[in-house]
Amino acid sequence: MKYYCRDIELEIVISEELTIRLYELGLKYHPAEYGGILVGKYSDDLKTCFIEETIVPTKHKSSRYSFERGKEGLFQKLTEYYHQNPQLIYVGEWHTHPDSTPVPSITDKKAMIKIAADEDVKISSPVLIILGVTKTIYSVGIYIQFNNRLYKYEQQ
Fold first, then answer.
1. Is there a cis peptide before residue 31, judged by omega within 30 degrees of 0?
2. Which helix (H) or strand (E) holds 53?
3. Domains assigned to the chain
4. Which of 108, 97, 90, 96 shows the shortest CA–CA distance to 152?
5. Taken in order 104, 118, 75, 126, is the CA torsion positive or negative?
6. What is the pLDDT of residues 84-116, one digit of tens each?
7. Which of 20, 30, 136, 143 is 20 to 30 A from 7, comparing alpha carbons?
């Protein structure tokens, strides 16, 4: 599935299979929030971000209205993706909003600002995917933190 943001002219591509997997992972923890990190690559011209995989945390804290991802084990898995061919890198975060819409909360917006500013993360424009999840359906919101603003993507 392709998503585009005219304001910054960057396309995001994520397979339907991966999107369904994110939904299924989130459904296991419903009605609490759940999530992980996004791994992918950019096109040579940096105009397209291909989201290829997710890494879920071994530890996390969550409730119906919050999700805090642990860091344990993530660096090792990211390093493995970095050294494989094709090379994949950290591109952002995802989490669910149980029985709600996939719209960023104030907490989500603050977290994206913090991630973009974190020198250890080494990505200035992280992607955020939020899935509005119920027991039977889901909806997807895709955003990117770019130049101190969170931009929304539309499906093409």
1. yes
2. strand 48-55
3. 2-155 (3.40.140.10)
4. 108
5. positive
6. 999 999 999 999 999 999 999 999 999 999 999
7. 20
